[in-house]
Amino acid sequence: MLVWLAVVPTVAMGVQVLIGSSRLLRESQHLREDVVAGRQTGTPLYQLVIKMQAERAITAASWSGSPVSGTELRSRRADTDRAVAAFLRSSDPGRVHADRARHHLQEVERRLAGLGARRERADARNGSPGDTVDYYTGVIHEAIRSYEDFSHVDDGGLTQERASLVSLFSASEVVAREDSILALSGPSRRLTAAQFTEFIEAVGASDYLYDTIAPELTAGDQRALERILASDAWKTKLRVERAVISEHRDAPSEVLLPYGIREWRTADDALAARLNTFNESGLRELLAHADERAAQLDRQVAVLVAAGATALLLVVVVVVLTTRSVLRRLKSLHDRTVTVAEETLPDIVARLQRGQTVGAEALPQPQGEQDEVGRIGDAFARVVTVSVEGHQKLADERRGFGMFASGIASRTGNLVSRQLALTEHLQDTFGQDEALLADLMRADQLTVGMRRQIENLLILAGGEIPDPHTEPMRVADLLREAAAEVEDFRRIDRHALDEISVEPGVISRLSHLLAELLDNATRFSPPTSRVDIRSQLVAGGLCIEVEDRGPRVTEERYEEMNGRLHSAPPYSVLAENAHRLGLFVAGHLAEQLGAKVTLRRSVFGGTSAVVIVPGEHLVDTHERGPLPDPAPKPASVRRPAEERRPGDVPRQGAADGEDGLAPTGSGLPRRRRKEPVGPARSAVVGAAARGSRVVSGRPALPERVPQTHIAEQLREPRAAASAGQDAATPEEVADAWADYEDSTRQAELELRQDQP
Fold first, then answer.
1. Helix (H) / strand (E) containing 346
2. Where is the composition biased (Low complexity) (predicted)?
3. Cβ distance 112 to 88 under 8 Å?
4. For residue 457, which phi and psi values (nearest 5 degrees)?
5. Predicted structure pTM score
6. What is the C-alpha separation between 597 and 543, in angstroms, rounded?
7. Quick one: pLDDT at residue 586?
8. Closest Cα to residue 388, out of 335, 332, 347, 337?
9. The 254-256 sheet, strands edge to edge
10. In 10 A of CB 297, how many CB atoms?
11. How far apart are CA 283 and CA 255, in angstroms?
12. What is the rounded CA–CA span in Å between residue 564 and residue 570?
């Protein structure tokens, strides 16, 4: 852009010099053309005017009966013919650029074409003497008017000089008209009233023109004109004019002139010669001045071109140097700005979001430079400082709100845990009533959902879910625990394809992440469809896939949802999506675990959520230590809803409190697994497990034993197999389930191989 700022003024200046030079060259060329046309046409035209004036006077005198010899008349006409021939020979209206001047010249040529016929009529005395005089006057008038518009160059000095010359031509023509009017009086000295009025007007016009022309002439021309006006001939002219005006006598339809008019002819011949010489000199001076002006314009063009080229070269040098300097500094400013925008500022914002402090040395500092580029850099540094201060304030507010939300979640979690303990106590107390037990388990399931929402608040506030587990958990148990957190857990099919365990520190967070994905899958798929959750070892760790049969989702929608999973949104985005926080929670948990969650289209048309758990969180199941001996106090393990049984009751007076709750590090309590009491250990309501299919892993719930809640008299003797089954050790049960899992996994692999 700056290159254009340098190029445009340079080109504009060059164009301006070119346009100015072209204009001056055109004016010079037009002036030279006008000078040539003036010499070829203007000079012969004025000679024609002089000869036409002389022929008009002698023709008027001959018509009025004055003693005019035929030789003198023919001589005057011959002079006029030579002037006409010279004019027609040199005149070329096409070479005159001014349209009006060209029109006047063409009109003169048209009128001259009738000169012979007019002479014949005058000789034959056809018509009136006034018409003959008016013919000559018309030709002279058109010729003088052509001088008014002869030049088409807008030059003030030449225009003024041309106007003065045209005024001199008009003044001498007025004097010549006076001569022709007095010639019409003849020996009788009689004029018609119209002719006398025309003479009076001509006298006034002559005096006016010479009085107004004199101040506009040059000093030399003024002195020459003053000599003419002070001559005896001019004085005689004035005396005759005053005599005619003051001493005339009016007669019916005519005017009788005084005897003094006889002096007019001699004075007019001398005066006309001097005026014509003066006018011709003025015309030659005008052409010479025009020629000088054309040469001056040529010199101006040369000076303008030379000065313009020099200035243009200087401007180009200055612009190039300035532009290079500005571009170099702007590039440096751009590089610093890009570095701050792409590296420094994001790093500072990330540090602020992590709760780290940022010192002033990490920010760009104003340099205090005074030029424009330096001030821009200082302004940007101040903008960055203000932006960082704003992010610092937002980070402090977010951190404060997170602490506040964590406190609220902790307190609410305590209440929910106590509610769960109370619900469990009611299940143990009134477990014999199947309808009431079903409602209690429903309430228990809803309470578990409430606890998960509270944990969501804790996660989004920046906290972590405390994990009370001290032993690794098998993946099959982890899947069952995650499914138990979902309200519609009966629709979930679990498939643990590999025997592996998860380390204790991530069990709660991974279970919560899977519970959020399962909850979304059950809520956004038809209520009659199944939801599959599968786990399998892959090269990068453990792959857990949640697949539903929900509606089709566009690729743009998948991109939006994956964006929620891969970036922590600000509170404004959370507020706009308060009813869809599951993906945000899953994204936070995946970030804490170092896992990767991706949503994609399932082969069944629904959505498949793939979770890749890093191998660092996995342990081999066979490497776990022996099962711990029963202790007086049970281990604090998070217990899913499917494992709570009516026979489990809280221990009164336990070391952890009356409600059997084990507070965690953040204050959020975790439920402990209760030891079974009495024979109700095997009498579990099957409503919580009938819809859940177990392909591998431990059974969701033991099978319910018939006749547990009927009267003693109606009970039938239990089969011996039940007693034998109850006598099995935990190791025998684990071995049996391991064989079952191996058989199931082998069958699934064979089914997959058979599929196309």
1. helix 345-353
2. 677-698
3. yes
4. -60, -40
5. 0.44
6. 10
7. 82
8. 347
9. 190-192, 254-256, 249-251
10. 22
11. 39
12. 11
User: Which SS3 state, helix, strand or coil, does residue 44 take?
Assistant: helix
Query: What is the rounded CA–CA span in Å between residue 507 and residue 592?
Result: 12
Question: Comparing C-alpha atoms, which of 74, 178, 61 is closest to residue 129?
Answer: 61
Instruction: List the structure tokens of 706.
Output: 């018939």
Bridge pairing between strands 693-694 and 492-496: parallel
**What's the pLDDT score for residue 580?**
64
Give me the DSSP letters along 538-593.
ETTEEEEEEE-------HHHHHHHHHHHHSPPPHHHHHHTTT--HHHHHHHHHHHH
Phi and psi (nearest 5°) for 264? -65, -45
Phi-psi region of 733 (alpha: psi -120 to 50; beta: other; left: phi over 0): alpha
Please state, in angstroms and rounded to a whole number, the distance separating the CA atoms of residues 683 and 434.
Answer: 11
Residue among 93, 94, 85 at smallest CA distance from 115? 85
Answer for the pair 385, 406: CB distance below 8 angstroms, yes or no: no
Residue 479: the pLDDT is 92
CA 612 – CA 514 distance, rounded (Å): 11
- The token pair at 461 is 């506030």
Paired tokens of 344 = 């420094």
- DSSP 3-state of 432: coil
The pair of three-digit structure tokens given for residue 598, joined into one six-digit string: 């991706």
> Tens of pLDDT along 360-408?
767 777 776 666 777 777 787 778 788 777 777 777 777 777 677 777 7
Q: What angle do CA 217, 229, 273 make, to 5 degrees?
A: 95
Short-list 537, 484, 538, CA closest to 511: 484
- Residue 537 pairs with which residues in a beta bridge? 542
Residue 607, both tokens: 């959505």
Q: Would residue 554 be called left, alpha or beta, if left means φ above 0 and alpha means ψ between -120 and 50 degrees?
A: beta
Phi, psi (deg, nearest 5) at residue 297:
-65, -40
For residues 70 and 93, give the distance between their C-alpha atoms in angstroms, rounded to a whole number. Answer: 35
Q: Please tell me the distance from the alpha carbon of residue 531 to that of residue 525, in angstroms, as a whole number.
A: 8
* Contact status, residue 194 vs residue 181, Cβ threshold 8 Å: no
Residue spans of beta strands (DSSP E) within 144-282? 190-192, 249-251, 254-256
3-state secondary structure 633-687: CCCCCCCCHHHCCCCECCCCCCCCCCCCEECCCCCCCEECCCCECCHHHHCCCHH
Distance between first and last Cα of the chain: 62
CA distance 257 to 191: 8
* pLDDT score at 660: 36
Query: In angstroms, rounded to a whole number, what is the distance separating the alpha carbons of residues 418 and 528?
Result: 34
Q: Do 60 and 180 contact (CB within 8 A), yes or no?
A: yes
DSSP string covering 436-462:
HHHHHHHHHHHHHHHHHHHHHHHHHTT
Low-confidence ranges of the chain (pLDDT < 50): 624-727, 731
- Residues 155-164: contacts with CB within 8 Å, 24+ apart? 155/27, 155/31, 155/293, 157/289, 157/293, 158/31, 158/286, 158/289, 158/290, 158/293, 160/216, 161/285, 161/286, 161/289, 162/286, 163/216, 164/213, 164/216, 164/217, 164/282
Per-residue confidence (pLDDT) for residue 37, from 0 to 100: 66
Residue 27 is encoded by which pair of tokens?
Answer: 């004016």
* Nearest one of 514, 437, 436, 431 to 683, comparing CA atoms: 431
Distance, in Å, from the CA atom of 4 to the CA atom of 17, rounded to the nearest integer, reads 20
The whole-angstrom separation of Cα 296 and Cα 293 is 5
